[in-house]
Write a structure and sequence with these properties.
Elements: H1 10-17, H2 26-50, H3 62-74, H4 77-109, H5 111-124, H6 133-140, H7 144-168, H8 172-180, H9 185-223, H10 228-237, H11 241-269
Helix pairs in contact: 3-11, 4-5, 4-7, 4-9, 4-10, 6-7, 7-9, 8-9, 9-10, 9-11, 10-11
């Protein structure tokens, strides 16, 4: 029995046999771009210093800063100060973030409460947090409490405002469905308000972490004997420019790391947002 000849054109046959080309997903592509942008910035910085565009006295080359970083890491100074700052940031975030989350969602659900709290937020939020640090020191002293409270105040407002905004953005039909099925206030709070406000809550958390890093550095410069802010201020006093930059870069790296971690948490909690 004779077989029919292959009638498909050669290019089509090649396309059938060729292995499918793998492409990066949008999420993986975004991760690579996010990792590449700081590296490109450092390379540009190094190049500008080496060709003399930037003054090395005020802008040391990243290679020089990295030498100081490894030296500080080797003698333990960097780890001690970084750990001190992270501990204060953690406790300050809990102190300010949890009450802000609960109050923000409650404000979104309760109109009289929102009318009562909104003027207080509007009048106190614009006050520079660094300006009230002397008052915080006066009340809480020079110990750890004053730094934690400073971070907590800075974290409180972004989380509160974004949580309230997130609940207000929930379609009223979802709340009506909950009430029609006899949901209690706690059930509405837990199953409708919190899930519906998650995108805005995550935005508030990101802003709160950034504000916390800023304020912890300021607080440690003024009233601490440890931490990254203290390390930067002490380096300024002895004119150790490379050490100053080490402290600044570590804070920047922490901010970048927290942002990446929160982005991954956001992809898990809000998977539909990743496709935008």
């Amino acid at each position: 029995m004779s077989t029919l000849p292959e009638t498909r054109p050669a290019p089509m046959r090649a396309a059938v046999t060729r292995a499918p080309r793998r492409r990066l997903s949008a999420g993986n592509r975004d991760r690579l771009i996010s990792l590449a942008s700081p590296v490109l910035l450092l390379l540009l910085w190094e190049t500008l210093v080496r060709i003399g565009v930037l003054d090395a006295r005020f802008f040391p080359a990243p290679s020089k800063i990295s030498e100081t970083l490894f030296a500080l890491a080797g003698d333990g100074t960097l780890w001690v100060n970084t750990w001190a700052s992270l501990q204060r940031l953690f406790w300050g975030f809990l102190l300010g973030g949890i009450p802000a989350l609960l109050l923000g969602i409650a404000m979104g659900l309760n109109r009289p409460l929102r009318a009562f709290v909104n003027p207080l937020v509007a009048t106190t939020y614009p006050v520079p947090k660094s300006a009230i640090f002397p008052l915080i020191l006066l009340i809480f002293g020079l110990g750890e409490s004053s730094k934690i409270v400073m971070v907590g105040i800075g974290v409180f407002y972004p989380v509160l405002i974004n949580s309230c905004t997130g609940v207000l953005g929930i379609s009223k039909i979802f709340l009506d469905v909950g009430h029609n099925f006899g949901a209690t206030r706690w059930q509405v709070f837990r199953t409708i308000a919190i899930p519906g406000a998650v995108p805005h809550i995550m935005s508030g958390v990101k802003l709160g972490v950034g504000m916390g890093l800023i304020l912890i550095a300021i607080a440690e410069m003024i009233g601490a004997k440890s931490g990254l802010g203290f390390m930067i201020w002490n380096a300024w006093e002895i004119l150790s420019v490379e050490t100053m930059y080490v402290g600044l870069i570590v804070i920047a790296v922490l901010g970048f790391a927290f942002s990446m971690i929160l982005d991954e948490v956001e992809r898990v909690l809000i998977p539909w947002k990743d496709g935008r």
